[in-house]
């Protein structure tokens, strides 16, 4: 994912849009949407782990026994459902399949997650939990920022495609005939 993401976020990725064929604009938009889907999936994994770690921190701060995580397990549906109703308009993902899930961001998530295994948070002391929570929060912000940049590119490409149809430079018949 790193190579494609770097190419998409490069300054020249959207250069010369006005001269490019509509089919190429659609292909660029699809490419951006595919990487955004992967980042969206990664972000949700990061958020889920963060929510579990902060749930454990909260449980311990209220006097919960470090070695008895049954309360944490009982609260998992509540903890993980916390972000389902996010404010603001969402975007419909063209494909829910994340595809190739690899790269430096995925590697960072793996490294952070290995420091406090989700299945055994009792192994981590309070300091380790706090460190992992901070690192997961930082990673989530980074992934969210990258998604915003991709949305900007998707919106720019969509605006150019729309402009072409409105101005008559492109025709709906071209879509139907594969042109």
Search tags:
179 residues, 0% strand, 66% helix, single chain, elongated, 6 helices, mainly alpha
Q: What is the structure about, briefly put?
A:
With 179 residues, the protein is mainly alpha-helical. It has 6 helices and no strands.
Give an account of the 3D structure.
It contains six helices and no strands. The protein is mainly alpha-helical. The longest helix has 42 residues, at 126-167. It is elongated, with a radius of gyration of 21 Å. The two termini are 29 Å apart. Mean pLDDT is 85; it is low at 85-89.
How much of the sequence is in beta strands?
under 5%
User: How many individual β-strands?
Assistant: 0
- Rg over CA atoms: 21 Å
Uncertain runs are 85-89
Q: Secondary-structure blueprint of this entry?
A:
Blueprint: H1 2-9, H2 22-61, H3 70-81, H4 104-115, H5 126-167, H6 172-176
């Amino acid at each position: 994912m790193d190579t494609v993401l770097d190419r998409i976020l490069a300054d020249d990725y959207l250069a010369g849009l006005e001269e490019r064929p509509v089919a190429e604009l659609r292909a660029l938009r699809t490419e951006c949407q595919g990487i955004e889907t992967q980042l969206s999936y990664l972000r949700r994994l990061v958020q889920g782990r963060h929510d579990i770690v902060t749930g454990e921190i909260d449980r311990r701060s209220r006097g919960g026994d470090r070695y008895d995580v049954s309360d944490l397990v009982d609260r998992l549906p509540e903890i993980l459902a916390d972000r389902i109703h996010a404010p603001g308009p969402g975007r419909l993902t063209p494909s829910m399949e994340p595809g190739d899930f690899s790269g430096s961001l995925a590697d960072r998530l793996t490294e952070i997650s290995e420091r406090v295994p989700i299945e055994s948070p009792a192994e981590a002391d309070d300091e380790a939990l706090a460190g992992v929570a901070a690192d997961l929060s930082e990673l989530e912000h980074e992934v969210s920022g990258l998604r915003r940049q991709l949305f900007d590119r998707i919106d720019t490409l969509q605006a150019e495609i729309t402009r072409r149809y409105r101005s008559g430079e492109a025709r709906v018949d071209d879509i139907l005939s594969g042109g």
